[in-house]
Write a structure and sequence with these properties.
The protein has 136 residues and is mainly alpha-helical. It contains 4 helices and 2 strands. Strands 1-2 form a two-stranded antiparallel sheet. The two termini are 25 Å apart. The model has no long low-confidence stretch (mean pLDDT 92).
């Protein structure tokens, strides 16, 4: 297991999205160890992401404005309304949530030459989660 902060979750997802699994010459999906490992890691990241979104939704509702009957109030765009104080408390709660950690089980791919072709950003973002490489 690897421990990460929720604030790192977006960069992990961005790094996964940075891997192209379509062969540009044939326009077909690449089916190799890397693509298999990605699908396994994506499932694990999605589970963590779901928990994060649920906690974020709870925070949003907790600090949203309500009418006298406790009914949530929405603005013209369908977003929750907040008082100035509620907005500040919501922001503090979100900052606290993003500082919390989660555990994720890596899926390490070995012996896949395509890893060397990935961008440095992707290599940094997924090193230790999808593969273990020496970064320069």
């Amino acid at each position: 297991m690897i421990t990460k902060n929720y604030s790192e979750l977006k960069s992990i997802i961005d790094a996964l999205n940075g891997i192209n699994n379509i062969d540009p010459t044939t326009n077909k999906e690449i089916k190799d160890k890397l693509s298999y490992g990605m699908s396994r890691l994506i499932d694990r990241v999605n589970s963590v992401s779901k928990k994060y979104r649920e906690q974020l939704d709870d925070i949003n509702v907790e600090y949203a404005q309500t009418d006298k009957d406790g009914i949530l109030l929405y603005d013209e765009k369908g977003n929750y309304k907040y008082t100035k104080d509620g907005f500040k408390k919501r922001k503090a709660a979100i900052d606290e949530l993003e500082g919390k950690t989660f555990d994720i089980e890596p899926y390490i791919v070995k012996d896949c030459p395509r890893i060397n072709d990935l961008s440095y950003y992707v290599q940094i973002g997924l090193n230790g989660l999808l593969f273990n490489i020496e970064l320069e």
